[in-house]
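Async update (no meeting this week)

Hi team, since we skipped the sync, here's where things stand on the single-chain job. The sequence we agreed to prioritize is pasted below, unchanged from the tracker. I ran it this morning and attached the output directly underneath so nobody has to dig for it. Comments welcome in thread, and please keep replies under the output.
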Amino acid sequence: MPQSQALADTRKGQLTTALLILAIVLLPLGLLLPALQTREIFWRSEHTIIGFGLALYAEGDYLLAGLLLGFSVAFPTLKLGWMLRLHFGHLEKLSRMRLRVLEALGKWSLADVLVIAVIVMSLKDSWAFGARPLPGVFLFAASTMLAMFASGRISAQLEERLLERERRAAR
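Output:
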């Protein structure tokens, strides 16, 4: 197997490619489909993740809007983009630094889901107010979990390639 071959071109990389594609497809669905239904006495409203963030911004809750949109839109998009770069890129450009960036992104993997969970839990169910998750939040969570699995596979495969290259250089 040539060293410059991308991870996606390997047998192990095919499953990772499928995980990445599925995560990429599910992310916008999770962000744009109704994710949360709120109840206020007699009214019910459905909210998308992006819509909820934009509504917070419009109401002047800039910090909450920034956290929600940052961790649910910007961060997952950045992470998936970095994973695509590593997975489909030529391995002669591979370095420990690029692997460390992926691992750093991985440490924040569930922060995006945690933000959504905090919102749902903060709207505790009572006789007058309540919230319940809708399909968008489950699609979003599925995208995050698939991205985590793909990230772990990419990280392991890249680590294996780096060690192989270091052994060859030491000879």
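Quick observations from my side:
Helices lie at 11-32, 49-58, 62-88, 96-107, 111-122, 135-170.
The longest strand covers residues 36-40.
Reply here if anything looks off.
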